[in-house]
Each structure stands twice: as structure tokens, then as C-alpha cells.
Amino acid sequence: MISKTDFDGFEYTDGGVCAAPGFKAWGVHCGLTHAGAIDSGDKNDLAVIVSDCECSAAAVYTTNKVKGAPIQVTRENIADGRARGVVVNSVNANTCNADGVEKARKMCELAAENTGLSASDFIVASTGVIGQPLPIEPIAKGMPEVCKNLSYDGNDEACEAIMTTDTMKKEVAVKFELGGKTCTMGGMLKGSGMIHPNMATTLSFITTDVNISHECLRHALSDIIKNTLNMVSVDGDTSTNDMCCVMANGMAGNERITKEGKDFSQFENALFVVLLNLSRMMARDGEGATKLIECVCSGADSERAAKIVAKSVITSSLFKAAVFGEDANWGRILCAVGYADADFDIQQVDVDISSKAGKIPVCRSGAGVEFSEEEAKKILSEEEITILVSIGNGEFRAAAWGCDLTYDYVKINGDYRS
Amino acid sequence: MISKTDFDGFEYTDGGVCAAPGFKAWGVHCGLTHAGAIDSGDKNDLAVIVSDCECSAAAVYTTNKVKGAPIQVTRENIADGRARGVVVNSVNANTCNADGVEKARKMCELAAENTGLSASDFIVASTGVIGQPLPIEPIAKGMPEVCKNLSYDGNDEACEAIMTTDTMKKEVAVKFELGGKTCTMGGMLKGSGMIHPNMATTLSFITTDVNISHECLRHALSDIIKNTLNMVSVDGDTSTNDMCCVMANGMAGNERITKEGKDFSQFENALFVVLLNLSRMMARDGEGATKLIECVCSGADSERAAKIVAKSVITSSLFKAAVFGEDANWGRILCAVGYADADFDIQQVDVDISSKAGKIPVCRSGAGVEFSEEEAKKILSEEEITILVSIGNGEFRAAAWGCDLTYDYVKINGDYRS
Q1: B53-70: pLDDT as tens digits
Q2: In total, how many domains does chain A have?
Q3: A250 and A342: one domain?
């Protein structure tokens, strides 16, 4: 499993999207399918999350020109900065279909009918195969059961429902203080393929009981996403349906956050901890992955340069394959650093490889240094690998997360339609 | 094998870099190695090509900030637009080594000593593992044998010497007319990994007997490379050592080409045919590849847009894996079209998949159309697949070439240091 990083003032807790007071969730297997699909068995494929009271809401979406129909409907529904719940399905992405928007609206209506809320209260999302008409019947049939069972303990059922090729549930929650009040923030996320830095890059839903304006929520989300989800790449493909949305129901009773300041910063810190953990889980569970690769680029003279270099390393297919083979082929790291579109002096580049088994320098001032292949192998045999790249004397740094490239990535994406 | 395209006025011929009169070549196994290498058996790893008389010479190089030492030496040696030969090794890239430039110069000196030419007459190139000191002894030992055996029939031996993970030799030659004279142009190229559009992308050597100034040669090479080698991607990694160089020895006796015009255009056509064939061979023999993927984007309102979209499709890991699985998962094509960084209306996008087994539409106006999965499977079971993407009513088009993503790509790059 992924190691969690300690942050002062944040305590990890259970319950995912139901960790914060006032949020119920549930998920069921309603039997969605698409042409060419393998039978998904009885895995949940439909989920609903609702808050006991109205929430400030904000979301970020994929930058792909091809956008899933649910994105259009969600945009409309949270244009006022408010929402009460989420309705989401897996298996079928409801994208590139003539009647996609109509079907996405129908999903909101079905959720509304069965919860007593209104259709425009819902964030709607779909993930799965692109370009296959979404059958609405299984959703209509499953919705009463989802809504009847909505529970403060329903996180697990909902979390399963958003999984596609994910091999593990991805959820996290933290408790923290805001102006003397204990607040909670939790989230769930689905991977595992078609994942590449570019606004959101996956489906993720964050809930919190913090009292915050939707303008501040939007501001915080757009800040934090840049250093978390947007720094993950599994395969370089930016999906069509991705969104990350946050709902804040205010039940913690803190003084409402309406502007930048100490409380806003603390809120951003919480969002960072939640999204950082989900980002690392997503990378580690990238399709076929056996290892998490983290690249930290430091010494850059701009944040942009640090980010581009870090991303370039974790995106390199050749390096990803070498990590799978636990081969300290650092030339591939330097190659990826070299083709990154940023200005720096390659003669100043230092590279170290590290993991909990140790840390060794492999490159200094752009040239190889001698190291023990045996020690390198030991470091790379761990499940979480960190590559440290220093590109000069600048003060900026950035981290990016990816995974190794394995036979199973090819199997998952070559052997059947996922 | 790769199908050759017919072009009016060009006739394919044998002999690769020795097809044009006046060019001799040879290659030997000199026993180069590097730390962690598997034994390369007795595969040739050192080659020399020489012309009987002085040549106009031009080259393009990788844009990676990390540049192999041979590139610096080649730049110096052909700064005057002239060369007599090429010396090249595989196995070790002579990159990121403190004494790399010195060793590259030494390779030229050794070639000079054994041919009676001068060191500055040589283009020098290396390919293989990055960051391992290049042992000069095997080269010094092998050079007399290479040079002693230089032959007008030596193309095969030289071609083998530049191979790394290549599974087949890549060579082509054509005959054509220039002002009533029969001219010949031939070339050889090595793949197969660390290949991505960005100036040259591999080692390739072109020889011709055309009489042309080095200024015109440089101009033609920089024109043609953009639509051939730079439109190939195997894995998205731009190598550190790549160069494509052309030597023209003038022995065809045509009126010297010194400016644009009919003869210059015909010369560019010949260079296009040679580099197009080598590009397709390189893509087809991408590491682990079982299929050549060609994407033709038309209807663009700029050449840039057409190129970016075509490249985006052939670069998508998800789509490459689907082609390996012979799965008509066209949603992945549309996804890759959608995240291409170009302006167009996604609602105008049409996609067809084709091969010699047939052609079917899979997407019209950005939405899926019904098609027979069986027919699609038949089309995708061929070895050369063409994806046709139309993005509007513009007049520009571009082609790009790639390959499927397979278990063997992972094996080649994960299992041992290559």
C-alpha cells in the first residue's frame, strides 16, 4: 500500500466521502454494459452521494476537446456554486453519443426522484468506454435501491461503483482544526488508465463539512489541483470525462471562509493533503503498475521548469519500463530531463535514485558517476521509488507521480475493451 | 515486410548506402560492451562508409539538451559542408561521459589512419546505452579490418553494425533522372526505441551521387525531415544521439544543383521517397511492434494542426495497445484527437479505420456510427493499419507513423539494459 505522509495538524481518519458529518453515500450493481464489454460480474457500477444540507460546490474538468456529456450537465447544475449530491456510473462514459446530454440529465432526474431533491442539485459523472450509447434502463432500475440505502457508512459501496480497471479503492480522509472547530475532509477517486496531467485527469469527489463560499472553494480547488492531480501521469492520455469536484456543507460550524487568509490557507492545506494522497494512490494503481514512481525536481529557476522536468521523467515509457525491470538505467532519466521543454544547463544536472532501502547518486553535473549496481537494484526493488533531479541553483521545486510500464498495462489495454 | 509506395519516376533498387556509385562500406564485430550489457554475440558493432571523392554533406541532430559527444564532433567536421565518410558504432552511445568528445575524435582519427583520409573528413555517430564510458580499444582493434574490407557491396555489413534492438535491417535505394542523368540515392537507418518526433529521431545515413551544393543539401534535408523522420514515434522518447546525415559525391555528373528549381525539387522528391520508406520501416520495427500504424489527418486549416493531430493518434499508449489487441476501440482515437493541441471543431471530426482488408467509418461528426465489429477485427488483423482522421474543411493534411504497444516493448525495455 501507499505510505501516507505526515503533515502537522492533520490526522488521517476513516470513512472517505462519508467521513465529514452530513454526507451519505451508497452504490449498487445495476448491470451497465457496452458493446464488446466483458461481464463486469457484480461489481457496483452506480453510486450516489448526498449531503444533508446544501453545499458550496466547485469542480474542474478535463481539457480534452472531446468532453463527456455529464460534464456539460454538471457545469450547468453547479453554475450557481451549489449542489446537494453526486450521481455517478462506471462501465460506460456516456461520451460521443448523440443523446448523451439527455441521458446525463435523466440520471440527475432519477437521482432527484428517489431522494426528494431536485435534478439541478446533482453533479453527474460517468466513466468507462467512450462512444457507446448509455443504456438508461439499468440506471433507472438501480436508482431506487441506491437511494433507499444511502448511509453515513456507505463510502465503501460508493467507492467500488466508480472503479473501472482500478485494482484497489482509493479514498482518504483527514481531520483538522479551523478557528477552534474540528473539520473533516474526505475523498474518493477512480483511476487507472487514460491518465495524464491536464486538469483533474480522473473522477474524484471530495466532501467536507467546512463552511466556505463557493468562490473560495473554486479558488482553492484550482490552486491545489495544479500540484496534485495535474502532476500524475499513467499513460500520457488525457481522458474525456475527468472531473474533480468538491462539496462543502458547512456543518463544522466554523466561521464562513469568504476570503483569503489564515483559514483559507488551512483549508487549502487540507485539500492538498487529501488530493496528494489520492494522486499517489492513483499513480500507484495505474493500469498494470507494480511501483509508484515519484520524481522531485529541485533547483529550478521557475515552478514551470520544475514541473515540466518532473513530469517528463515520470512520463518516459523507456524509464517506466526500466523501473519495472528494476534496472538503474539512469541514462533514460537524463534523456527525459534533456528533452523536457524548459531552459536550464544540462551540465548542472544531478540525479539520485532513492527508496526506503536507501539513496545513491547516479549522475553529477550531467555525467555518470560510479555506483554499485547491486545497491541500485535493492533500492529499485521497493514499491515506492523516488527520483531526485536537481537542475541548477534556482529555488523552485515540484513533484510528479507515475508508475512503471508493465506487461499488464499492455494486457489490460490490448486484450479487451476497457 | 513494409509495402513500398510507388512514386512516378522513381525506381527502387538494391544496395542501400552503396547503391550510388562511389560509395564503399563495411562493418565488423569489434566487441563493444557496457556495464550490465548482455553479450551481443558476434553482431557487427562498428561500421565505416567512404566515398571515392569529396562529398557535399549536411546533417540534422537531436533537439534533446543531452547530446551525444559524437554530435559535437560531427558538427565541427562538417561545418565546411564537406565530408568523405562516416564512422559509427552501436552498443555504447558515448553520451554523458567526461571524455566523450575526446573518444569521438579518436574514432575519426582511427578511421582516417586506416583509410588515408583526414580525421576531419568523417561524420561520427554512436548509438546504444547512455552514460557508460566508451572503451576505445575494441574500436582501435576493429578499425583496420573494417577499412581493409571497404567494398562497393558492403552495405549489408555496415547496416548490421548500426542495429541495436532492431529486428530487421532498414535500407532502401532509388534511381531517378536529373537533367538526363541517372542518379541514385540510398540510405540506411537504425531504430527501434527512444524514438519520437523531434529532429531526426534516429541514426540514418543517406548517400547519393547527385552533384549538389552543401547549402542546397542542407536546405533539402531540413525540408524533408519534417514530413518523414520527424513524424515517427515509437515511444515518445527523443533520443540523445540522433542524427540524419546526407553525403552527395556528385559522380552522377548532373549539372550542379546550387539553387531552388526543377532539379532541386526532383532531388527533394528523391530524399522524400528514401526517408519516407526508412521512416515507415522504423515505425514498423519499433521495439516489440507487430504492426505499423499510419495516421493521416486531413481537412486541417494548417499543416501544424494536421501534424499535431496525426502525431497525437500514433503516440497514444492506449490506442497503441488497442491496435496490438486488434480492438476497434475508436473512442481512444477520438480521445487522442481531442487532446491534441490544435484548434478545430470536434463536432466535425470523422474517423475511418483501414488496411488492405478494407475500410470502415467508425465516427462521424464526433459521434460513433454503427459498424461490424467482425469487419473491424479483420481490418485490424493486418500488419499495416491506416487511421484516417478528417477534422474539418481545411486543405492541409499530414501523415504520421507509429506502431502498436506490446508485451515485447515492455520486455525489451524492462528485462535488460538496452
Answers
A1: 999 999 998 878 888 899
A2: 2
A3: no
Question: In Å, how far are A105, A191, A300, A316, B376 from A307, measured between CA atoms?
Answer: 38, 21, 9, 14, 41
Q: Is A96's CB within 8 Å of B413's CB?
A: no
Residues in chain A with CB shorter than 8 Å from the CB of B336 are: 237
Are B382 and B409 contained in the same domain?
yes
- The answer to whether the Cβ–Cβ distance between B315 and A236 falls below 8 Å is yes
Query: Which among B284, B301, B318 is the end of a domain?
Result: B284
| Closest C-alpha among A191, A162, A151 to residue A87 | A162
Domain that holds residue A162: 11-284
In 3D space, the residue among B19, B35, B102, B77 whose CA is nearest the CA of residue B245 turns out to be B77
Residues of B within 8 A of A334 (CB-CB) are 66, 96, 130-131, 240
Across the A:B interface, residue pairs with CB atoms under 8 Å apart total 209
Residues B297 and B252 in one domain: no
Q: Which of A42-46, A152-156, A242-246, B383-387 has the lowest mean pLDDT?
A: A242-246
Asked if B398 and B231 count as a contact pair (C-beta separation under 8 A), the reply is: yes
What positions of A carry a catalytic annotation? 201
How far apart (Å, rounded) are the C-alpha atoms in residues B320 and B343? 24
What confidence tens digit (pLDDT) does each residue in A246-288 have?
999 999 999 999 999 999 999 999 999 999 999 888 888 888 8
> What's the rounded mean pLDDT across residues B159-167?
87
Test B329 with A35 for CB contact under 8 angstroms: no
Most A CBs within 10 Å, among B67, B318, B324, B370, to test the A interface:
B318
Cβ distance A325 to B416 less than 8 Å, yes or no, reads yes
State how far residue A167 is from chain B, nearest Cα, in angstroms: 18
Read out DSSP for B375-412? HHHHHHTSSEEEEEEE-SS-SEEEEEEEE---HHHHHH
Instruction: Choose among B194, B317, B406: nearest Cβ to A235.
Output: B317
User: Taking CB atoms and an 8 Å cutoff, what residues of chain B touch A412?
Assistant: 321
Enumerate residues 6+ apart whose C-beta is below 8 A from A262: none
The answer to whether the CB atoms of A64 and B338 lie below 8 A apart is yes
Q: What residue type is assigned to position B286 of the chain?
A: G
Residues B261 and B323 in one domain: no
| CB distance B273 to B393 below 8 Å | no
- d(CA B266, nearest CA chain A) in Å: 34
**What does the block give as the cell for A66?**
472531446
Cβ-based contacts of A365 with chain B (< 8 Å):
none
Euclidean distance between CA atoms A170 and A187, whole angstroms: 8
3-state SS track over A313-356: HHHCHHHHHHHHCCCCCHHHHHHHHHHCCCCCCHHHCEEEEEEC
The yes-or-no answer on residue B201 being catalytic is: yes
Question: What pTM value is reported for the model?
Answer: 0.79
* Cα B159 → chain centroid: 13
In a domain, residue A78? The reply is yes
Same domain as A263, residue A372: no
Examine the domain organization and report whether B125 and B170 are in the same domain.
Answer: yes
User: Quick one: pLDDT band at residue B159, thresholds 50, 70, 90?
Assistant: very high
For B385, half-sphere exposure in the C-beta direction (CA atoms, 13 angstrom radius) is 31
- The reply to whether residue B331 touches residue A407, judged by beta carbons under 8 angstroms, is no
Residue A1 pairs in a beta bridge with: none
Q: Distance between terminal CA atoms of chain A? A: 24
